[in-house]
Amino acid sequence: MPTHATPPTPVRAPAAAPPDHFRFHASHRHLAPAFGSDWFGVKAEAFARFFGTPTCLLAQTGIVAIWIGLNVAGLTQFDVYPFILLNLAFSLQAAYAAPLILLAQTRQADRDKAHTEADAQHREALAVASAERQALAAQQTAQMMALLEQNTELTRLTQELTKRIEVLTAEVHGRVVRGGV
User: Fold this and answer.
1) What is d(CA 21, CA 154) in angstroms, rounded to the nearest whole number?
2) Is 34 exposed, middle or buried (0-12, 13-18, 19+ CB in 10 A)?
3) What is the full DSSP assignment across 151-176?
4) pLDDT digit string (tens) for 8-18?
5) Angstrom distance (rounded) from CA 108 to CA 117
6) Exposure on the CB side of residue 114, measured as CA atoms within 13 A
7) How far is CA 51 from CA 9, 129, 140, in A?
8) Rounded to whole angstroms, how far apart are CA atoms 6 and 21?
9) CB 118, CB 28: distance < 8 Å
10) Residue ranges per structural domain of the chain
């Protein structure tokens, strides 16, 4: 019964893990969502972000203009001059908007501080790695210089031995030719 040899399957080394470029930010991941990741946090952040947009300012200006226009023109009488209800609406809006905006700013400052600390750690790690590479380069340079010196010395010894062999060969040749060994 003939046996067929199957070629051996090559053994592969395990692949190296890709570098984690955000490893310095790992300890600060809990700060990623501005108000938390729950429903309130998501809505509060969206609300705080919306208040500074031109869309919000233009919409608010339009609503106020329509409010005042309707009441001054006499089309409706739900908030006559001096517009107490409009003032109350602005006060209510400010009462809710200010804490949410301040909370967003505080959380953003915390995230910025955490990112600054992570970046500082990253710079320190880069500096350490750079110093290690420089030390390794200096060590390798010193080894190369030592090898070059050894090579130079070996070359000099080889030249001396070659000259000595030439002298001895000439001496032996001279004795053989003269017939007196």
Assistant:
1) 48
2) buried
3) HHHHHHHHHHHHHHHHHHHHHHHHHH
4) 555 555 556 66
5) 14
6) 19
7) 64, 45, 61
8) 43
9) yes
10) 33-146
What distance lies between CA 120 and its chain's CA centroid?
11
Crossing angle of helices 39-50 and 84-178, rounded to 10°: 100
Could you say which DSSP state residue 51 is in? T
Tell me how many helices (H) and strands (E) the chain has: 3, 0
Structure tokens, 4: 């067929």
Question: In whole angstroms, how far apart are CA 112 and each of 10, 31, 106, 108, 142?
Answer: 49, 10, 10, 6, 44
Residues 6+ apart with CB under 8 A from 175: 181
In terms of pTM, does the model score above 0.70? no
Query: What are the tokens at 142?
Result: 């010193």
Token pair for 24: 């310095």
107-125 pLDDT, tens digit per residue, is: 778 878 989 998 999 999 9
- Note the residue count of the chain: 181
